[in-house]
C-alpha cells in the first residue's frame, strides 16, 4: 500500500504507524465544565464506519510528520492525504 | 588522566572500506552533523551561503551541505569537521534557530560506483522501498532499511550516502555489504 505524502509523494505504508480516527485532533479542554464526560467520549467513543474514514498516520520511518489520510476501509483505497498540522490549524 | 583511544563507529582505529565489483563502501567518521529546526513563525536562514532545500532535497556548498529532514527541519553536514564543534558554528550562523549537535549519534557510509548510476540503483532496489529511478542527484530522504531508520543522500549520479544510527553501525554495514557483494557476483 502506498500513501501519497503531501510533501514527499507516494511512500510505502510500512514507513507509517497508524493511530486512529482523525477526530483525535479535537482534544477537549480539560479545564472546561463537563471535561470528564467529554474526555470519556474522546477516549472511548469512536465511529467505526465501513467505507470512507479519516484517520491519523505518523510517518515514523520518514519525516515524522502526522498525516490525515482519507481511506475507504472496505476497499483500502486511499483517497487523499494532508498534513495533520494543516487540518488542525484550519479547524475541521 | 587515562589516555583514551578514539575509534570509529565500526569499532576500529581506521575507517572501514570495502569494494564489491563496481561499488566501494567507505565509512566516513569525519562527517560533522548538526540538526537545525526553525522556531515558530521564523523564516529559513541563509546558512553558509546555502539555500536550505525544499522537502526531499539536498544541497551542497563550500565544505558544507544540508538536507531536508522534516517540515522546518534540516540536517547540516560538514566533511572532515567531526573533531570541531560544528554545531556551535551552525548556531552562530543561524542564531534564531534551534541547533543540536548530531555527529556522534550517526555512522556515515559513502557508496561510490565506478560504473555510473546503474549499480547504485540496483543496490537501492534491493534494500529500500524508495523509487530509485526518481531518486537522482540532490535528493535525500529518510526511510527504513532492514528495520533501521536511515537517511539516504544521492550526492551524485555515482555516489550515495547512507546515514544510520551509530549504535547499529555493524548491522547497517552488514546489510550494505551483503547486498553489494551479492550484486557483484557473476550471473
TrEMBL record, chain A:
One of the GO BP terms on file: tetrahydrofolate metabolic process
Pfam families: SoxD
InterPro entries from the UniProt entry: SoxD, SoxD_sf
Gene Ontology terms for molecular function: sarcosine oxidase activity
Transmembrane segments: none
Signal sequence region: none
The protein's name in its UniProt record: Sarcosine oxidase subunit delta
Gene source species: Rhodovulum strictum
From TrEMBL, chain B:
The organism of origin for this protein: Rhodovulum strictum
Designated name of the protein: Sarcosine oxidase subunit gamma
Upper taxonomic lineage: Bacteria, Pseudomonadati, Pseudomonadota, Alphaproteobacteria, Rhodobacterales
Stored SUPFAM superfamilies: Folate-binding domain
Listed InterPro entries: TrmE/GcvT-like
Amino acid at each position: 500500500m502506498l500513501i501519497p505524502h503531501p510533501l514527499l509523494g507516494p511512500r510505502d505504508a510500512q514507513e507509517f504507524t497508524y493511530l486512529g480516527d482523525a477526530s483525535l485532533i479535537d482534544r477537549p479542554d480539560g479545564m472546561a465544565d463537563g471535561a470528564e464526560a467529554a474526555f470519556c467520549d474522546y477516549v472511548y467513543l469512536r465511529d467505526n464506519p465501513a467505507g470512507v474514514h479519516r484517520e491519523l498516520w505518523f510517518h515514523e520511518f520518514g519525516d515524522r510528520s502526522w498525516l490525515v489520510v482519507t481511506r475507504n476501509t472496505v476497499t483500502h483505497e486511499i483517497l487523499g492525504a494532508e498534513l495533520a498540522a494543516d487540518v488542525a490549524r484550519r479547524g475541521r | 588522566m587515562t589516555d583514551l583511544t578514539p575509534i570509529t563507529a565500526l569499532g576500529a582505529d581506521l575507517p572501514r572500506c570495502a569494494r564489491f565489483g563496481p561499488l566501494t563502501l567507505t565509512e566516513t567518521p569525519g562527517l560533522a552533523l548538526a540538526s537545525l529546526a526553525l522556531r515558530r513563525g521564523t523564516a529559513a536562514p541563509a546558512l553558509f551561503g546555502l539555500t536550505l532545500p525544499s522537502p526531499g532535497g539536498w544541497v551542497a556548498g563550500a565544505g558544507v551541505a544540508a538536507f531536508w529532514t522534516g517540515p522546518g527541519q534540516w540536517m547540516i553536514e560538514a566533511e572532515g569537521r567531526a573533531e570541531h564543534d560544528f554545531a556551535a558554528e551552525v548556531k552562530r550562523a543561524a542564531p534564531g534557530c534551534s541547533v543540536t549537535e548530531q555527529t556522534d549519534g550517526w555512522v556515515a557510509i559513502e557508496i561510490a560506483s565506478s560504473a555510473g548510476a546503474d549499480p547504485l540503483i540496483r543496490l537501492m532496489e534491493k534494500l529500500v522501498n524508495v523509487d530509485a529511478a526518481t531518486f537522482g542527484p540532490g535528493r535525500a530522504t529518510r526511510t527504513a532499511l532492514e528495520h533501521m531508520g536511515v537517511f539516504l543522500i544521492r550526492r551524485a549520479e555515482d555516489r550515495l550516502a547512507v546515514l544510520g544510527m551509530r549504535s547499529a553501525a555493524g548491522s547497517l554495514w552488514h546489510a550494505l555489504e551483503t547486498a553489494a557483494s551479492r550484486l557483484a557476483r557473476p550471473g
